[in-house]
Amino acid sequence: MTVSGIGSNNTYIYNVKTGKLATKDGSEDEFTDYFNGELKGEKSETLNGFDSRNKNGIERLIWYLKSGPGACKGIFSEGSADEIEITAETTDVATTHYSVNGEKVLTAYMMGAFSFVDSPQLPGTVPYKTQESKPYDSIHNRVFIAVGDEFDLGNGYRLKVEEDHVSVSGLGSGSEEEDQKVKRLAFGMNALIHFADQQWMAATIEKQVTPMLLELLREMGVDTSREFQINETKCELKHDRIVEAGNRFAIPSTIYQEAAEKYEQFLYQPLSQRTYSS
After folding, report:
1. Which residues contact 10 (CB under 8 A, 6 or more apart)?
2. Could you tell me the residue ranges of all domains in the chain?
3. In which band, very low, low, confident or very high, does the pLDDT at 248 lie, cut at 50, 70 and 90?
4. How far, in Å, CA of 199 to CA of 194, rounded?
5. How many other β-carbons are positioned within 10 Å of the β-carbon of residue 143?
6. Cβ–Cβ under 8 Å, residues 191 and 200
7. Cβ distance 149 to 166 under 8 Å?
8. Where on the tree of life does the source sit, at the highest rank (predicted)?
9. Beta bridge partners of 15
C-alpha cells in the first residue's frame, strides 16, 4: 500500500453485519488488517499516524451512523444492504472528509494543536512584538499599535502601551465608575495588542469591552464595518467579537501553523517507531 498522508483518498467496503473493513477491489491491505484488529500498528513499517487517525475517524463515522446525531437507521436495520462504501479523503493535516456510498457525511477535525507547540504563548506577561508605530494606512485599512503609543481619552485619562501591558494615568480624576471603565479598556487593549501580535487567542478580548475598543479604533481612522488589520493580523467582526479574518481555529494562525507543521511530521512517522505500552 502507499504511504498515507495529505492528499490520500481511499475507498473501502464496510460490512455492517461483521464490522469488518475491506478494500474496494478485494486486494490485500495493511490498513484494513489494522482496522479489523488482525495487525498491530507496531508490526508494520508502512502504517503511520495518518492511518491511526483514519482508523479512529472511521470508527467515529460508524458510531455516528449507528447511534449519533446523524444516525441512519436504514443502514443498520434488518433487511438493509450488508455492505456500505466508505471513502476517506485527507485534505490537510487537520481535516479528513468521510463519505458513505458517494455522499459526504462527516468532516473530522483532529488536531491537538498545543500538544505540538513547545511553548505556545498564552495569557501572561508576554512582551508585545510591535515596537514601531505607523500612521493609519487607508489603502489597507490598517493601523499599528506599538510600544510607546499613548492615547488621550479626552476626559483626564490617558493610556500608554508599555513593554507588556497598557498602563492608565489620571485615575481619580473621575468617578469610581469611570476609573473602572478605563481600567477595563486598558485590560481590553492589552488583549487586543497581544491578539494583533499573534500571541493570544481572540477569545481573550472580552465581548463587554469590545464596543470601547471599536470606538477607539474608529477614532484612529479604522473602518470596522469591513475587514481591517491591526499590526500583523487581519481582523473582522463576527457576532460582535473581534476575530482573525479567515481563521476557523481558536488559536492564532501563526501558532496554528507552527503546530500543524509539527503535527504533520508526527503523523508521517511509521507506527512501528512509536512507543507502545504492554
Report:
1. 4, 31, 54, 87, 88
2. 8-118+265-273, 142-250
3. confident
4. 5
5. 19
6. yes
7. no
8. Bacteria
9. 83
Residue 15 CA to residue 21 CA, distance in Å, equals 6
CA distances from 54 to 24, 67, 96, 122 (A): 16, 20, 8, 31
Say what the pLDDT of residue 118 is. 62
Dihedrals φ, ψ of 48, to 5°?
-135, -170
With cell 508585545, the residue in question is: 128
Would you say how long the chain is, in residues?
Answer: 278
Whole-angstrom distance, CA of residue 142 vs CA of residue 228: 6
Tens digit of each residue's pLDDT (9 = 90 or more) over 124-175: 668 999 999 898 999 999 999 999 999 999 889 999 999 999 999 999 989 9
Q: Are 149 and 161 in contact (CB under 8 A)?
A: yes
Cell match 479598556: residue?
A: 185
What is the rounded distance in angstroms from the CA atom of residue 166 to the CA atom of residue 141?
A: 23
Give yes or no for a contact between 177 and 152, defined as CB atoms under 8 angstroms apart: no
Provide the Cα torsion 255, 261, 267, 273; round to 10°. -110
pTM: 0.72
DSSP 147-163: TT-EEE-SSS-EEEE-S
Distance CA 256, CA 268 (A): 18
Q: CA separation (Å) from 67 to 14, 108, 130, 161? A: 17, 17, 51, 54
